[in-house]
């Protein structure tokens, strides 16, 4: 298994009459990354040539026929990578009746938690990484909330509301309509976030923690 960190999306500019090169990569407050390549090496021993070819063709068909999906890695059982298989490279060793398959997945740069937080499923709670934080609120006219994003990057939550409300975060106010709201301009930054809700009704927030692993 090989899961190297992704490359950064660098925005470099050399300005005339200014010393050095200016890096605008984190202009929005955090570093931005390209997709990453996760690589796995699978080996099959003591199989005839015909059996090895059947296995090779079956692996190619199963993996390359799928689009983006959850890649569950037993190295990190508490979540998944979001990706698709991009390449299967076979290496057939006829002398030792061995087949080696190198499988590559193109993945979203961050590892994603298995559950929308906070689910209150203590059997699956990771005491090294997870944070216990309420995600459902019954608001009466006004309520102040603290969200803790324990991930590595800002998140855009999906917010369910029973009635019209207003959400204020980082001095910005957003209107929430009844039903499902997903506004990618609403960001829950890494760490502690102070949020206020104005209105009356029930609010449920869904978001997955994203970690750099």
Structure, described:
With 213 residues, the chain is mainly beta. It has one helix at 49-64; strands at 12-13, 22-23, 36-44, 69-71, 79-93, 98-107, 111-113, 136-149, 158-161, 165-169, 172-176, 179-181, 191-206, 210-211. A hairpin with a 2-residue loop joins strand 10 and strand 11 (172-176). The chain is extended, with a radius of gyration of 23 Å.
User: What is the averaged pLDDT score?
Assistant: 89
Oligomer status: single chain
Net shape: extended
| Biggest sheet architecture | 6 strands, antiparallel
Report the end-to-end length measured between terminal Cα atoms.
13 Å
Order of helices and strands: EEEHEEEEEEEEEEE
Overall number of strands: 14
Tell me the helix content. under 10%
Poorly predicted residue ranges: none
Strand content: 35-45%
Helices and strands in order:
Blueprint: E1 12-13, E2 22-23, E3 36-44, H1 49-64, E4 69-71, E5 79-93, E6 98-107, E7 111-113, E8 136-149, E9 158-161, E10 165-169, E11 172-176, E12 179-181, E13 191-206, E14 210-211
Give the structure's gist in a few sentences.
By secondary structure, the chain is mainly beta. It has one helix spanning 49-64; strands at 12-13, 22-23, 36-44, 69-71, 79-93, 98-107, 111-113, 136-149, 158-161, 165-169, 172-176, 179-181, 191-206, 210-211. A hairpin with a 7-residue loop joins β4 (69-71) and β5 (79-93).
């Amino acid at each position: 298994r090989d899961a190297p960190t992704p490359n950064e999306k660098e925005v470099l500019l050399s300005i005339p009459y200014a010393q050095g090169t200016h890096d605008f990569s984190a202009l929005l407050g955090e570093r931005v990354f390209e997709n990453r390549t996760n690589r796995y090496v699978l080996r099959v021993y003591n199989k005839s040539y015909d059996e090895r070819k059947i296995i090779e063709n079956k692996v190619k068909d199963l993996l390359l026929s799928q689009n983006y999906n959850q890649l569950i890695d037993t190295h990190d059982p508490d979540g998944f990578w979001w990706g698709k298989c991009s390449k299967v490279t076979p290496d057939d060793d006829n002398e030792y009746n061995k087949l080696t398959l190198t499988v590559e997945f193109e993945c979203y740069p961050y590892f994603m938690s298995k559950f929308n937080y906070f689910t209150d499923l203590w059997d699956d709670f990771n005491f090294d990484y997870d944070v216990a934080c309420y995600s459902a609120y019954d608001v009466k006219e006004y309520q102040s909330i603290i969200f803790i994003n324990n991930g590595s990057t800002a998140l855009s939550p999906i917010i369910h509301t029973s009635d019209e409300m207003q959400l204020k975060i980082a001095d910005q106010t957003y209107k929430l309509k009844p039903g499902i709201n997903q506004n990618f301009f609403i960001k829950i930054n890494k760490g502690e976030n102070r949020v206020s809700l104005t209105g009356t009704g029930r609010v449920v927030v869904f978001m997955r923690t994203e970690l750099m692993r």
